[in-house]
Amino acid sequence: MYAQSNISKTIHELSSILQIDLNIELGAIKLYDELENQWVIECPNNSDVIHIYSAVSRYDPNDFQLTNKLAKVLELNSRMDVVRGCWLAVNNLTSEITLNYSLPEALSNGQILSHALNNMRVIASDLVRLIEEQ
């Protein structure tokens, strides 16, 4: 129970920093940036980890060269200068490549989540260009 009350406090702090109302629905919060990109903060019940992700690219599941393209994109995970503590994942259900970051809820607060979201937005914009080059 401590984890959920701490997460609620963290979300309240983030809401104050961003000056928007944030509500956890089904263990997640959806935010949209100025470019209408969706950012999801997952804080599932009975978990001590907060996970943030956003789609940075979509792909055509019928592309005959898809395996090679996705392998090249996922190789970016080994480039710390590119992903900077985050990682890329493939979501086959939505045909998206997502940028992901997780942190222990015990080490989080509204300021840390705000910084994480801002850093991820910068990383995502850099990744969009790199992925398009693949």
Task: Give, in order, the helices and strands.
Answer: HEEEHHEEH
Strand arrangement in the largest pleated sheet:
1-2-3-5-4
- Chain-averaged pLDDT: 91
Radius of gyration: 16 Å
Principal-axis shape equals elongated
The proportion of residues forming helix, as a percent range, comes to 40-55%
Structural class: alpha+beta
State the end-to-end CA separation: 45 Å
Strand content: 25-35%
Task: Outline the structure in words.
The protein is of the alpha+beta class and 134 residues long. The chain is built from 4 helices and 5 strands. Strands 1-2-3-5-4 form a 5-stranded antiparallel beta sheet. The protein starts with a helix and ends with a helix. The model has no long low-confidence stretch (mean pLDDT 91).
Short key terms for the protein model shown above:
single chain, elongated, 134 residues, five-stranded antiparallel beta sheet, alpha+beta, 4 helices
Write the SSE topology.
Blueprint: H1 2-18, E1 28-32, E2 38-42, E3 49-58, H2 66-74, H3 80-83, E4 87-91, E5 96-104, H4 110-133
Helix pairs in contact: 1-4
How would you briefly describe this protein structure?
By secondary structure, this protein is α+β, with helices and mostly antiparallel strands. It is built from four helices and five strands; from the N terminus they run αβββααββα.
